[in-house]
ABC transporter permease (Mesorhizobium temperatum), 221 residues
Amino acid sequence: MVGLLHSVEIAAGAFGLGLVIGICGAYGKLYGGPVVRDLLAVYTTIVRAVPELVLILLLYYAGTDLINQLLTAMGYQRIDISGLVAGIAVLGFVQGAYSTEVMRGAILAIPQGQIEAARAYGMSPGLLLRRITLPAMLPFAIPGLANLWLIATKDTALLAVVGFFELTLATRQAAGVTKAYLTFFLAAGVIYLLLTLVSNLIIGRIELRARRGMPSLKEAR
């Protein structure tokens, strides 16, 4: 149970962090200057090209070491970064690259007349984001974000390779002690499946609420 809770905590934290990065990254790619757009393009390309396990190992070990080296260089003491925080930061960084592209596509799907009308009324960029862009892009973004959430729940299993105690590592330890590998790993698979099914139900309700007033998918066909 503790391993499952840790997996859900990391998935939720990484998804939230990735969502923040995605919104900022999408705006930077669409409305930022040439340097910002180029840097974001490099970020999304590298993260999507390099295997996630390699990124996790690199960021988990090299990233935490780099932070401590910078603190030492500035005269501060080294800090002990908890596995939970490091796991959220690492997976959030990976999620952010994918979320950036999901958000960018969702913003581009908004009828431009809505944004032009808001600008004509003199809305500030922040007000335009809150009242027009985010609500209008949500129906287009939910399917992609739903996939990212499910990926985040499964990617927590990769943290087992760095020794973080989550569902997969807990399962492996229990199976190693009891030698009942089939039983424990089948149970872990069922738990991941149940988590996915519950997530799909919640996401479906959110999508129905976000699409209120819009043609249903059946009608669109």
